[in-house]
Amino acid sequence: MKFFLDTANLDELRKGAAWGIVDGVTTNPSLIAKEGKPLEEHIREICGIIDGDISAEVVATTSPEMIQEGRKLVKIHRNVVVKCPLTRDGIMATKALSSEGIRVNVTLCFSANQALIAAKAGAYIISPFVGRIDDISWTGMDLIRDIVQIYRNYGYKTQILAASLRGPTHVSQAALAGSHIATMPFKVLDMLFNHPLTDKGLEQFLKDWNKAFQPAPVGG
User: Fold this and answer.
1) Residue 99 falls within a domain, yes or no?
2) What is the per-residue pLDDT across 193-204, written as a single tens digit (0 to 9) for each?
3) For residue 219, is it within any domain?
4) Is residue 114 part of a domain?
5) Is residue 11 situated within a structural domain?
6) From 95's CA, which of 14, 64, 140, 200 has a CA 20 to 30 Å away?
7) Is 211 helix (H, G, I), strand (E, B) or coil?
8) pLDDT tier at 151 (50, 70, 90 boundaries)?
9) What is the number of other CB atoms lying within 10 angstroms of the CB of residue 101?
10) Is the pLDDT of residue 211 over 90?
11) Residue span of the structural domain in which 207 resides
């Protein structure tokens, strides 16, 4: 499974890149706005840190404007994936852009039927929002499993990106469900390293080493 960082913060991206396990980045207008830089400049900087798929979302709401904006976004860098919302206009834009060979990440997916529509429109990635479905007392991971089965049934090549992941358990559950990609905030990626037995084991190893190899006392 690929790991994407769901952030536009350059410091977080540099830290993640240093670990060597980050395969891509998802951004949205809210994340970009927090950084206070022009969109094109900021996306270009992100592409300079992470060599992988970088999703950049359109802000237009009509299909002609989305298509125009998508064409402009992909000119920023070869790794840019255009992100379109799962609306009627968004799907029309997805179909048009994908027909031109432009990769599209269809976002704000909350049902298997929506995921099926996106795949039929030629989406490169579909982004179901697991955590937000959990928030309304449904089981978000069931949606991942349903989409995996539907795509498998019909041989769709659209990659499933589990989004709105709130913690390490969501990440492992998405992997078990068969999601191709998990996108997460930096803090969640950082938490994947943690286990008390790892810390305890390392502490004991170092204690045993120092005990066995500490310098002999001088004099006496």
Assistant:
1) yes
2) 998 898 888 888
3) no
4) yes
5) yes
6) 140
7) helix
8) very high
9) 8
10) no
11) 2-213
CA distance 75 to 218: 69
Model confidence pLDDT, tens digit, residues 154-186: 999 999 999 999 999 999 999 999 999 999 999
Residue range 38-48, pLDDT digits in tens: 999 999 999 99
Residues 6+ apart with CB under 8 A from 45: 10, 37
d(CA 180, CA 152): 12
Find the radius of gyration of the CA atoms of the chain: 21
If we measure between CA atoms, which residue out of 24, 27, 22, 23 comes closest to residue 8?
A: 27
State the Cα–Cα distance between residues 182 and 189, nearest whole angstrom. Answer: 10
- 188: domain CATH number is 3.20.20.70
Active-site residue set = 83
Show the tokens assigned to 128. Answer: 């179901």
Number of domains in the chain: 1
The pTM of this model reads 0.92
- 108 pLDDT higher than 60: yes
Residue 43 CA to residue 142 CA, distance in Å, equals: 33
